[in-house]
Write a structure and sequence with these properties.
Distance between the termini: 71 Å
Helix content: over 70%
Shape: globular
Radius of gyration: 21 Å
Strand content: under 5%
């Protein structure tokens, strides 16, 4: 009797099924879509900030060491902050998480190094558009290596997004060394998008994120050492215009928050759908470049 009365009360609460609709209004896929769309705003703001920071580093360390110097400071700060926020994730790092994070770190760091290296040789708008070419590569990688089914609606959405980004950003000017580096970065990021779902569905995303930051810090630091950059030179470069604040900004907002959100939520949707969402990034980047750089 009590069960029947409870069922009756629940059914009378909203006869139009409102509660059932609301309970499904924010399912994992929809929540992931909303969160990842928000992260594209942060990533869009990273183009002009990374360009300013890398150029400042290059002015003191030289053009070869500038990108690695900026990435070292950025990811060192991100590593320290994420470890402080998630001490439990650090304590629970196991061999599986370390291995998964290391695998994901390869395209992650390669993409950033190529992107920042290209940014000091091209405009923020052109870099953002060329980076967005991962929309072409991601579904192809998914079909070839990750058993992802290619859906016509998703592919059409990607094609329309790519055309729209081209029209709105107008990245004309031909292909120089900066553009080719950025094209290579798009391939690296496509691999990262695909691998993110594989790794974060098997390993804790917070731990994976910390491993990525650690890998990027070690890799960029090793590059600086090979190039003969001394710690004192790197410290003095922080006094260059725009270096310190852009490194801190990209560490907090574009790394700890944005990369953390990607690793936590992208696993709830397909990589190709995620790539379509990330097409908002170059539009935001073009907007920021227009406001702050006059592009």
């Amino acid at each position: 009797v009590l069960h029947r009365r409870a069922a009756a009360v629940q059914g009378m609460h909203r006869p139009d099924g409102f509660d059932a609709k609301m309970s499904g209004a924010m399912n994992p896929a929809r929540k992931a879509t909303l969160v990842l769309l928000c992260t594209t705003l942060l990533w869009g703001s990273s183009f002009f900030t990374m360009q300013w920071g890398a150029e400042g580093m290059a002015a003191r360390l030289g053009p070869a060491a500038g990108p690695s110097g900026f990435l070292f400071v950025r990811f060192l700060l991100a590593l320290a902050l994420s470890s402080a926020i998630f001490p439990g994730a650090v304590a629970r790092l196991d061999r599986k998480t370390l291995a998964g994070g290391a695998i994901l770190s390869i395209p992650f760091y390669a993409g950033f190094l190529l992107q920042v290296s290209g940014l000091v040789r091209t405009t923020s708008t052109a870099s953002a558009f060329l980076t967005s070419l991962f929309i072409v590569v991601t579904p192809l990688l998914g079909a070839l290596f990750f058993r992802e089914r290619l859906r016509g609606a998703t592919l059409l959405g990607g094609a329309l997004s790519l055309a729209g980004v081209w029209i709105l950003t107008d990245p004309s000017g031909g292909l120089g060394s900066g553009e080719w580096l950025t094209l290579a970065c798009a391939v690296a990021f496509a691999f990262q998008i695909q691998l993110t779902n594989v790794v974060t569905r098997r390993c804790p995303p917070e731990g994976v994120t910390i491993v990525q930051f650690a890998f990027a810090t070690v890799a960029s630091g090793a590059t600086l050492a090979v190039l003969g950059v001394r710690p004192g030179d790197l410290a003095s470069a922080l006094s260059e215009r725009h270096v310190a604040w852009t490194a801190a900004y990209t560490a907090v907002f574009c790394s700890v928050i944005a990369v953390g959100a990607l690793n936590r939520f992208q696993r709830d949707i397909t990589p190709t759908r995620a790539a379509v969402l990330y097409m908002m990034e170059p539009l935001f980047a073009a907007g920021f470049a227009g406001i702050f750089q006059g592009e």
